[in-house]
Design a protein that fits this description.
Keywords: Aspartyl esterase, Hydrolase, Signal
Number of strands: 36
CATH architecture of the largest domain: 3-Layer(aba) Sandwich
Protein name: Pectinesterase
CATH topology of the largest domain: Rossmann fold
EC number: 3.1.1.11
Radius of gyration: 28 Å
Organism: Algoriphagus jejuensis
Family: Belongs to the pectinesterase family.
Shape: globular
Oligomer: single chain
Length: 629
């Protein structure tokens, strides 16, 4: 191995295992940015005192390999970095993380009139690359009130700025770029005139926007064909002492779009709210709107008559996923939504019980507790995707005499909600009856589109087989069971060996299972009996009319070369939840693969959660598996 690459290899191991805390306590050998230009693909530390790989951020940027094969982090230790930093479009999948916005500062002082450089060259930090994250930093332009002087110039796509401060005066932040999507979360932005301007689609979440002079906050230049421009959600508008005449925005170009939602507006916001920059064409084309705002400056009664007050029913249009989603382009390196997600907990045992009790007053929710005869291993991490950890639980009998058959349990919730805890009672009873029962967490549609969930569950199968000895599992006897949306997912996982469903893995165990139990889960999305619409589209990334090939690829009944194993279909009274079953039955019968069907009449959809069906479901399920195994 050549010395330079051995050197890089050792530093990679050192940095990945160390992280930021190590860098603060232990010196790291400095690197030569010129010699390593475009070669580095491991985490880096920047420190002005020489305790990192580089003393400047620009040196670190220069050293990083273009179009990285996997994400890295540049940790920036406390200090005021007086440098003009440019991140080219070839730099992707990097997180730049400071210690805190108060202590880690990137600072420069260029301005438009200086050597006639013009507005767009005055930046302190210019970001042209995509899939980049910035955390715990201050970016400031120190030129003062001398005209246009940009702190941040951002034009890349899928950019995230979290817990950052942007300090300047006129034109502090150029959030621009045709097709650019940018997220600002928990940030502080200050300036005087048009201090948030440009053509990007940008979502400002829980940000403080501080006006230092009587002037304008935004100057959007949204292209006519773009649905969203600037959206401020749950923000706070403040002002310096003596500032009392501030407009929410004016249009730098026609068709500008800016919306404030659930935002606190101080008394410095003028009653008219918006200004047209003296152009009649702008009045006819711009879209300026507010919704559910509060504070002394939020009264909309005297707003400019060419602006809008939105109906709360329109709120979903301005939520983060609706604003920042792009067709087929939402996934980061790990398959997660690049702009993050909010966990949907609407599907749970309590909510389901309250809903179903209205039509089935006799039901009782089943909530079992594990007894002393069982061993329980909770929240075992089976997959790491960047900072995201996916977990599963293991329920098993204590001290089994021989390895036991296993069953993975996949919860439902419309592919967007639910939790592995909903499968807990099933797991406890199955463990009591001699199975290694494993409820599995997987990524839901608010977090990641299909096929992420399929890949997650397949990885869970590999992981539990890899740890078979630890849990007393017979890895040659593994079944998978799912309920509702989880049943569709479990069936697809058990039947498919398509590369798109297998995903990336370092585990050598197979994701194959020996049996499938489908509890009221659809088997074909596009089918006369199927009623799956928006929830399926949210998971699959579009409606059938947009992506018919994906809807078919995710339908177990439509797999061209399915892996057929014994199956048990346990259904409620509703036909929509077994759409496509007859297609699979025919395939299983033709291949002489055993299968069973049982329908509970006059039952709610999630019958497995309640008495009087819980114990019968367990009896049917274990009877089937015992016959197979």
């Amino acid at each position: 191995m050549k010395p330079i690459f051995l050197h890089l290899f050792l530093l990679t191991l050192l940095t990945f295992s160390a992280g930021f805390s190590f860098a603060q306590q232990n010196p790291i050998e400095a690197l030569d940015a010129e010699k390593l230009k475009g070669k580095v693909e491991h985490d880096l530390v920047v420190a002005q005192d020489g305790s990192g790989h580089f003393r400047t951020i620009s040196e670190a940027v220069k050293a990083i390999r273009v179009y990285l094969p996997k994400p890295i982090t540049v940790y920036i230790k406390a200090g005021i970095y007086e440098e003009k930093v440019r991140i080219d479009g070839t730099l992707t999948h990097v997180t730049f993380e400071g210690e805190s916005p108060e202590t880690t500062v990137i600072s420069y002082g260029d301005f438009a009139a200086k050597d006639n450089m013009g507005t767009f060259e005055t930046y302190t930090l210019q970001v042209l690359g995509s899939d980049l994250i910035f955390k715990n930093l201050t970016i400031q332009n120190t030129a003062g009130p001398v005209g246009q002087a940009v702190a941040l110039h951002a034009e890349g796509d899928r950019l995230v700025f979290e817990n950052c401060r942007f300090l300047g005066n006129q034109d502090t932040m150029f959030a621009s770029g045709e097709g650019s999507r940018q997220l600002y979360k928990n940030c502080y932005i200050e300036g005087t005139t048009d201090f948030i301007f440009g053509s990007a689609t940008a979502f400002f979440e829980n940000c403080t926007i501080h006006s230092k002079a009587d002037s304008y906050i935004t100057a959007a230049s949204t292209p006519a064909w773009v649905q969203h421009g600037y959206v401020f959600m749950n923000c706070k508008l403040t002002a310096a002492e003596g500032v009392s005449k501030v407009y929410l925005g004016r249009p730098w170009r026609d068709y500008a779009k800016t919306v404030f939602v659930n935002t606190e507006m101080g008394a410095h916001i003028l009653p008219a709210g918006w200004q047209d920059w003296g152009r009649e064409s702008a009045r006819a084309t711009v879209f300026y709107a507010e919704m559910n705002c509060r504070g002394a400056g939020a009264n909309t009664e005297r707003r400019a008559d060419w602006t809008h007050v939105l109906d709360p029913k329109e709120l979903e249009k301005y939520q983060k996923p609706a604003v920042l989603s792009g067709f087929g382009r939402d996934a980061d390196f790990y398959g997660n939504r690049w702009f993050g997600y909010e966990k949907d907990s609407s599907f749970n045992l309590e909510a389901s019980f309250l809903k179903d009790q209205k039509n089935f007053p006799q039901i009782k929710a089943v909530q079992l507790s594990a007894g002393p005869e069982l061993e329980v291993f909770e929240n075992q991490v089976y997959r790491k995707l960047g900072s995201r950890e996916l977990k599963l639980d293991v329920f098993k009998p204590k001290d089994p005499k021989e390895p036991l058959p296993g069953i993975l349990l996949v919860h439902g919730g419309g592919w967007r909600s639910g939790d592995k805890i909903v499968q807990r009672s099933l797991a406890i009873r199955l463990a009591e009856l001699g199975f290694v029962a494993v409820p599995v967490e997987y990524r839901l549609s608010p977090e990641a589109h299909y096929p992420a969930a399929v890949q997650d569950v397949k990885e869970a199968i590999r992981w539990i087989k890899t740890h078979a000895a630890e849990f007393g599992l017979d890895s040659s006897r593994v079944a998978i069971s799912g309920s509702s949306a989880g049943a569709q997912l479990a069936t697809l996982v058990g039947m498919s060996d398509l590369p798109v469903h297998e995903g990336r893995t370092e585990l050598k165990a197979s994701s194959d299972v020996q049996a499938i139990v489908n509890m009221d889960g659809v088997l074909a999305f596009h089918h006369p009996e199927s009623a799956e619409g928006k929830v399926a589209a949210d998971w699959l990334g579009g409606y059938y009319e947009q992506i018919p090939e994906i809807w078919d690829e995710a339908s177990p009944a439509y797999l061209a070369s399915p892996r057929l194993v014994p199956m048990f279909f346990i259904n409620s009274q509703y036909p929509r939840f077994h759409a496509g079953r007859e297609i699979l039955e025919a395939k299983l019968q033709a291949a002489d693969i055993p299968f069973r069907v049982h329908t509970f009449p006059k039952t709610p959809h999630p019958f497995w959660l309640y008495d009087p069906w819980f114990e019968k479901t367990i009896e049917l399920l274990t009877g089937f598996l015992n016959d197979i195994f």
